[in-house]
Amino acid sequence: MNATIWWRKFVRLLQDIDSEELLQTVSRYPKRKLLVIVCAIIFVLYYLGVSGGGKTLSPAGTCVMERFKNWDAAVQEQSIGVDENLVLFVGNGHIGVDVNEELRLSSNGSKTLDFATGFKPLVKVEVAGAGSSAESTFTEFKEGRVRNIKCYVMDGDCMCIVRTRYAHRTRKELLVEEVKVVNPTKSSVTLQIGRNAAENWAANRTGDVTVYTRTFPSHLFSLTAAVICSSAPGEYIVARKREETLRFVCVIEQRELSSNMAMDTKPVLNELSKRVISDFSRLNNMAPLAIDTEHENAWKKLNMVTFYLSPSKAPNVLNGGQINATKYILMSNTKAPLLEESFPEDKRKALELSSRRNERCYSEHSTLLYPSKLWHDWTHVEDLLRMADIWILTLEKRGCAAMLKSGATGLAQAFTLSLSGASYHDSHLEVSLSVSDLHREIAFGGLPIGVGVGDASARVRIDDENTPYFEVSATGTLYACGGGCLAEPITLGRTPTKLDIKITNPETAILYIATSRKHLEQLRSTIHVSEVMSAPAHESQLLALHRHGSAMGGLPMWFWFFLIILLIAFHAFLAKLLWSEWRKGDMTPYNPYLRSRYSSTRSH
Which positions, given as ranges, span the membrane (predicted)? Predict the structure, then answer.
């Protein structure tokens, strides 16, 4: 409840009070007690105003928030991007659409979708005669989609348009946009749906569709592209009390030519035009649900390797939302050949073998270091692409080049390894996180150990004494030991097993996971340290800072400020009272009659 509502209730209460009776009641109280009561009332009202106050939503904004409730759980899980974690970018490594709704392609040798084409494939939707509106846009990291909810208040009801777009993960040429119109009002709604003009693109009409082609010449290569999109209906009427979904697809084909700009590209453009027409016809005959399911299942496979960082309220720290957004940016700019249906089977097997050569990936300290060049703002598409390029280059140079050859599948593993401070070695995984960084819960999962043996998962927890420890599990039979590997290796299963964190001098890994017990027993002989000790407990103030945003605990700073002021005022009042009583006693006039009477009474 916000401060405005409390104020209205307070005014209504004052109007019901008899002023004369109130004055008589107040006059019976001491002034000091009245002052304390007034201060307490002001403090409570201020607390309610600060904790409950917020931005007042417009009627259309309320409609948006009501529809957004379907994603409340995802917000808590930090699996969707809103506000500073919003990523207005969709892509599959071949094609993408940026924050400016511009089609992007991958140029020669680039690791990202850095080539702007000037083509805008998304439709424009306008509501005829609509008044004020409100909207919210968010990114679904796990599903690889961007959604926009826009609502209008019409006839006292919420008329909303939900737009969804994604670049298909397994069909590299496909871009999908869906427009869902929810009209619960008593009257029909007229929409104007159109497309932006494709400037500098050649338009060739073929039957009911138009194919757009263009060549982007360069001194080193020429990039040719052909695009075909569903026709926009223009005026579209949604009847009252109806929900309707319109679906638009674009098919994009491209080819790089190692030629100069003088080469005749007409035959290549004709070939690409025929291909997009054929693909467009085939995709239109498929069920939309089947296409959506293919895309979602592919993203599920990319997200099988997971990483979790507990939320922190401390200032200027890294949180899970930014990590998930960064991973989404990397995935959206990277091809996934192991998931693409058109990728040849023989090449797929070769890439799978190559990705298993993962020795020494990732060979550096954890990338959780913040701030750093790896964690940047991505308001502008250039910043987004630059950050993705730095990430991929970092992983390549830190032992993950072979793994990255498998595309987004290997990139997902390398990204998680880098965050976890983990690296693959001969038949085992080492986790080398610094104990000083374990003041927040950290978890990773889905990292494969061996070939077809099992996937390992580990979680750093903090006990009641503020000491960190591991909970380790596996999908198959794996074995683990802590720092120094002095204790006997434990057998892992699906049920998490507690493992104390040990630190060594000099520093070595704090966790080893292997495919066999014998391997860890042999590994113990190769770990040369002078001292092994239990991980120290963290300071309570540090944990409180992350959990509550203040080293003083969960209450806000202004609460402690007011409490200190009240304590100072109370002690000042008490000191003044004692001083007054002392002065009053010292100034009492001498009465010889009372003194002699008191003395005679004592003599008896």
Answer: 34-54, 557-579
Residue after which a domain boundary falls, among 302, 317, 336: 302
Adjacency order of strands within the sheet including 209-216: 80-81, 133-140, 145-154, 157-167, 174-183, 242-257, 222-229, 209-216, 202-206
Q: Are residues 269 and 313 in the same domain?
A: no
Phi–psi pair at 246, nearest 5 degrees: -110, 140
What does the alpha-carbon distance between residue 555 and residue 247 come to, in Å, rounded to a whole number?
50
pTM of the model: 0.84
Number of domains forming the structure of the chain: 4
The DSSP code sequence of 67-129 is HHGGGHHHHHHT-EE-GGG----EE-SSEEE-TT--EEE--TT-SS--EE-S---SEEEEETT
Exposure letters 150-185 (e unless 16+ CB within 10 A, then b): bbbbbeebbbbbbbbbbbbbbbbbbbbbbbbbbbeb
Residue 342's CB is within 10 A of a number of other CB atoms, namely: 10
Q: In this predicted model, what pLDDT tens digit does every residue of 333-370 receive, in sequence order?
A: 999 999 998 899 988 888 888 888 888 899 889 999 88
Closest listed residue to residue 324, CA positions, set 575, 521, 74 = 74
Residue 308 contacts residue 327 (beta carbons within 8 Å): no
The answer to whether residues 439 and 543 touch, using CB atoms and an 8 Å cutoff, is yes
Task: Enter the tokens of residue 274.
Answer: 């025929």
**Domain at 89, CATH number:** 2.70.98
The candidate with the shortest Cα–Cα distance to 298, out of 169, 457, 180, is: 169
Q: C-alpha distances in angstroms, 262 versus 201, 242, 266, 272, 493?
A: 18, 55, 12, 19, 63
| 435 and 573 fall within a common domain | no
Query: Does residue 434 sit in the same domain as residue 506?
Result: yes
φ and ψ at 558, to 5 degrees? -65, -30
Q: Which helix (H) or strand (E) holds 294?
A: helix 288-302
Residue that is last in its domain, among 280, 302, 324: 302
Mean pLDDT value of segment 554-571:
71
**Residue whose C-alpha is closest to residue 475's, from 455, 452, 458:** 455
Q: Are residues 288 and 356 in the same domain?
A: no
Which amino acid is located at 237 in the chain?
I
Q: What are the DSSP E strand ranges found in 275-386? A: 306-309
Residues 257-276: tens digit of each pLDDT: 876 554 678 889 999 999 99
Are residues 478 and 456 part of one domain? yes
* Domain extent for 521: 306-548
For residues 116 and 98, give the distance between their C-alpha atoms in angstroms, rounded to a whole number: 9
